[in-house]
């Protein structure tokens, strides 16, 4: 791959017009060309067999989601979380189902009966971590009070409950002294929560939890119990994943829309139905092969990677259009369709291969990020690009060598390509090789670069919106989340700090005083709404042990007195061995700034603790702790990813052109596009997270395609003795038109994602459309402006571009 073979078809002497196949020497060309085109029936037979086998496999591909795949498994926070997962209630993956009374309040016999039936159905649902499930009807929801005889307590709904007015009055009293108001019961008594922690695998079958099936069961329960008296509000990671999977099924319609857009625009440009159909077919075959290979290799699609097949199809259309354009021009000149296919293979195979390798690199570097869902996306996309190398660089020209192209379309394409004068917008583009327009373009580019870099410094990592930013703000999930935020003091964004001690040491004064000190420091921070821990419960216990006198709201240095609290503590605060404690920190939101502030204070406190003590604090669990770990990995990976992708693109360009000047000309426009994309994210209020991080790498890998096709032709013409202006005009006639066509087409196709019910897919569509357009502008405006100052015929001679017609 050290050289580029490009023959400009306007030079009739470069490749002779051969009208009869008998006059063509089949022994000419590279070994790869001879292997493929001298054995075309075998190539088609092999492709047909692969299409049938992999197409059949593709039908079995599954759409799944996994909680563990969305978290960075090797991050210290997650390692601590996994180590202590068995001790945690829900472990950050839980559903909260608020059952709201549409009329009156929860102290209603019919409401409580509905709550009991729903509680029982949820308890028996597969995948529920039943010992930690909690509601008004579960036995772990208790009250404790100080009486004349000392401490007293019982379950909130006792065995004596019968629905009578007396029983309802007793229930109200029990709730008021349970401490669950604002957590399990709304402050206005109009709703209560069923807390449903989930297991990652079904203990009966051993299979991973099926979030789609779980969401369907929840929706079935919603339909069953929603009435004019009761309304359900459901939040939690599992419900987000279920809604995403439902949304993805709707998104599949965008694939058909992308096919129509790409095919329609390509046909409008070529006016050749048969070749357009072949290009579309080859791109669809690539998608079928990709999905089939994913199934064979044990991968599945998830909400984050489901759009990758769309990208593979779009990339295939882009490269296919270049191959079809070359064949159209050669056939228009009178060349036999088989010879035209071989000429096009010679001219564009290496440039196309380099472009696809850059695409693959843009995807593959994502595997460096320690988040399984992104690594799966990288594998998914890399496999798709790998099959494109065969389907669109090999199968497409072989198929066109059989079916040919429309003679009228071929003559029209040749007439456009042979036109000596570029008019209208094309003449304007050609002017950017002149000194003044080039200097103006580079000056504007420099201003945009400086401005975008300044704006990109404000780019934040993590979610910037409340609720589930993966979904639309007006989605039912986010409306449900808003209801819980409004009705309950306890936030759904919980950071859990874990503490371990020797057995039976968790209630010692030395242990609880450290937990209490950390809780106090965190409570002073903006964004922290409250904390819950065994230390806080021990303070209340001291009040209870002393006739309810709040002067005793302290931790006393008496281990025996503090040990009495263990019998009344809820299970989520400690384990049975009294060797594990949790400090639950309720946050106002899960925005990046809030998480950084709270985790920074917690880390500072932990670092100040003496080494070798009995108490060991561990960060972090809970939904907020897991998100903080994810943000940390994304922040670190963002720049590393760009270094790797740009390093790989630079290396591939240098290996292809063997010229640092040509490499600079190809890569600098990409840098501007990357910075503009980050600035756009700031302007649109997007943070860098699992959903948006891949777009930045993909835009670089895919965007270099345009520059490679334009630059390859320019270098060949410069080597032949043309000046920069002549070389660029030739590139515009030969590949520039198709670059403009595919850039606009791809941007239009992915921009349809804006209408997706899934917000992060809509965000991906906006960012990719922006990057497609700006990379196209870079290839057609900034590239010639840079070439004006950097590329010269002597420079091109050093690029080692092979003469036309020789092996690449």
UniProtKB/TrEMBL annotation:
Keyword line: Cell membrane, Membrane, Transmembrane, Transmembrane helix
Domain SSD: 284-402, 693-789
Any one Pfam family match given in the protein's UniProt record, by short name: MMPL
Entry's transmembrane regions: 42-65, 251-270, 277-301, 307-328, 348-369, 381-405, 438-456, 641-657, 664-685, 691-713, 734-755, 767-791
Bilayer topology: Multi-pass membrane protein
Locations listed in the record: Cell membrane
KW Chaperone (keyword) present: no
Source taxon at top rank: Bacteria
Predominant place of localization: membrane
Coiled-coil segments: none
Matches recorded under InterPro entries: MMPL_dom (IPR004869), Mycobact_MmpL (IPR050545), SSD (IPR000731)
Protein name, per record: RND family transporter
